[in-house]
């Protein structure tokens, strides 16, 4: 990694952490703000979450092409400004229409930032450093969210709407800080990144959705990603929370502690886990995550059986969230770098945006688990035990579509030194779906 790449990466990571800190101020309190503080009720609060997701789903299909043609820097700046406007207006809004429009802008801005920042990280890293870079990004995000949530909890007061306006104002400022930081980033221009840089001829850049949908490995990764996000993030604040409160008798305070345990597990385990996974096959790491989450769902089921004490049920539930956190720590240096390594020339933005869209779709459909988790709890657990085992199967199946270096980037050093790689194609034979990293 060159000095220019290192300096740019430090600024990107700093901006990312500060933004997460700002988001942490508002995420835990959005429902209370709309439903109770503004007195609009639970349906209005639910509609705000829907608008937030809809903004992301509308914006992301067009984001990748813009990133690949114009570069990620102006996209991050534009998205940050849009998110800032959305956050500030949300804090000032009192009516349902204004709140929905604000949530739409905030959701679109936050969603567009994700693939643009991921593309910047790709530009400022090499295949050998990319895994650690994405792990650091995930660590900083969770640390920022956790600290922001803790500080925000000390400021917020349900009897004072102005305290919520202050929280959203802080979030808006943090988005503008991100825009200012990214505007000062000097992106590297080196030969090793020619495959990730946007092409001068827009017609040659990317290839659009049709090209990506013909890429079998990427399609399989998107399917796997959807199942991962639906089974984890999509259930945290919806189906699993409903299961915990209805079947396991978990109190809201215990649920909050479980979420804190999830974040704590990520922060504590991230770099320990990184040392264990960065030299191993990515698909086997993902398969192991599926098995860990299978255990997590079984433990969650135990908390809802009602055979133990309330303390045992709470402990089991908190353990479930902590195990999910360990799995997330294993995925952070695995999924995003794999998306980048699969992207053909000039399509890094398109691939990152597509994967972000898959995540948003999974999150939007996550609440479908609520009726099952609250009404038929043991069936709910059984379904997600099966889904988690399916994650392991899908990951191993994906491994057959990847080259040895795509599945294990540490082998790139062997290739660079002219050494043989087990499973690699013989000299002169080109893979049918090459990836440019």
UniProtKB/TrEMBL annotation:
Localisation: Cell membrane
Primary location class: membrane
A Pfam family annotated for this UniProt entry: MFS_1
SUPFAM superfamilies in UniProt: MFS general substrate transporter
Keywords, ordered alphabetically: Cell membrane, Membrane, Transmembrane, Transmembrane helix, Transport
Claim: Transmembrane helix is one of the keywords in the record: yes
Protein name: Putative transporter
InterPro entries for this protein: MFS, MFS_dom, MFS_trans_sf, MFS_Transporters
PANTHER family cross-referenced by the UniProt entry: MULTIDRUG RESISTANCE PROTEIN MDTH, RESISTANCE PROTEIN MDTM, PUTATIVE-RELATED-RELATED
Protein species of origin: Streptomyces lavendulae subsp. lavendulae
GO MF term list: transmembrane transporter activity
Membrane topology: Multi-pass membrane protein
Domain of life of the source: Bacteria
CC per GO annotation: plasma membrane
